[in-house]
Amino acid sequence: MKKLFTYLGLVLAACLILVACASNKPAEKKKAAPTPTERAKADATVLIDTMLGKSSNGFSKLYGENYESWTESNVFEKQVADMIEKEGYTPEADYTFKYIEGYDAKTPTQVLSKFVKVRRNMIAKIQDYKLKDVKVKGNEATVTFMSRSINSYDAARTVRELLTRLYNNDISKLAEWNSAGKGDKDKERDKALVTYFLFGENFSGSLEQFSGMTKEMSYTPLTGADNLEKSFKLTKDTDGNWIISTDSYVELVSSLMDADESADNAVYAERIHKNLSDYQPEDSSDSSSKSSDKDK
């Protein structure tokens, strides 16, 4: 019996020691709420990740719908309507054309809608960037980052080559097309629509079915420089989220279309990003230099 009491005493002592240790354990500190700058930085990262095609995680939570739906319902519909009004494509029936044999006639709304969607998808092949700075002042944040951009000169060069092929290398017809619009507003509008049409069709891969068109022609041209600086604004909403406005989004898209770097310096997204479905490296046996093809 004495041994039993001794054993029980030891057990009780051990329990008291454990209780004492537990009571002396410091309380876990509550995680501090993010500062406005930290929150703005996080929300800016979600937006840039999504726009440049790195990741779309978190976009729907911030904007209430996925990126494609948000751009098409909140941005593109109004943007296209504004373009039509600004360029004078009214009535639309007067500017509805059958651009290529085998295609249905397309209205300006159809042509421009595809153009802005394809441009969005091309920007989503940039992927890599570096967030440089986030400055918060009241309910507005200015975000600065560096990345590649779309090489507009190379894209324009591709469109010119498409025109040459469509005209079957008839230089006189191409010269006539290039001179169209000089003093003739209607022809100038027609010429612009043809450019928008070819841009949208080519860079969506829709022209590969035609003779003489290659997959390489639809590659997304990026600037060789990967440190081009862009800035945009975010505004804090009533839930504390930092959101881009539709106007700021349109401006940011424009800043991602570079009009300074030479077409000769372009690199192609499909050759530098292995995660793209149509990835084809520079030294692939079935891929030659796009720029060299154009110089032939």
Summed over residues and divided by their number, the pLDDT gives a mean of 85
Overall number of domains:
1
How helical, in percent, are the residues?
40-55%
What is the succession of H and E elements?
Answer: HHHHHEEEHHHEEEHEEHH
The computed structural class is: alpha+beta
**Shape from CA axes?**
globular
| Strand-residue proportion | 5-15%
Q: Main sheet, how many strands, which sense, barrel?
A: 4 strands, antiparallel
Distance separating the two termini: 105 Å
Strand order of the largest sheet: 1-2-5-6
Number of helices: 11
Q: What Rg is obtained from the alpha carbons, in whole angstroms?
A: 29 Å
Q: What is the β-strand count? A: 8
Taking pLDDT < 50 over at least 5 consecutive residues as the criterion, the unreliable ranges are 284-289, 291-296
Give the SSE layout.
Elements: H1 2-24, H2 36-51, H3 59-63, H4 67-87, H5 108-123, E1 129-137, E2 140-147, E3 150-151, H6 152-166, H7 171-179, H8 185-202, E4 221-222, E5 228-236, E6 242-243, H9 246-255, E7 257-258, E8 267-268, H10 269-272, H11 290-295
Protein traits:
296 residues; single chain; disordered C terminus; globular; 8 strands; alpha+beta; 11 helices; four-stranded antiparallel sheet; two-stranded parallel sheet
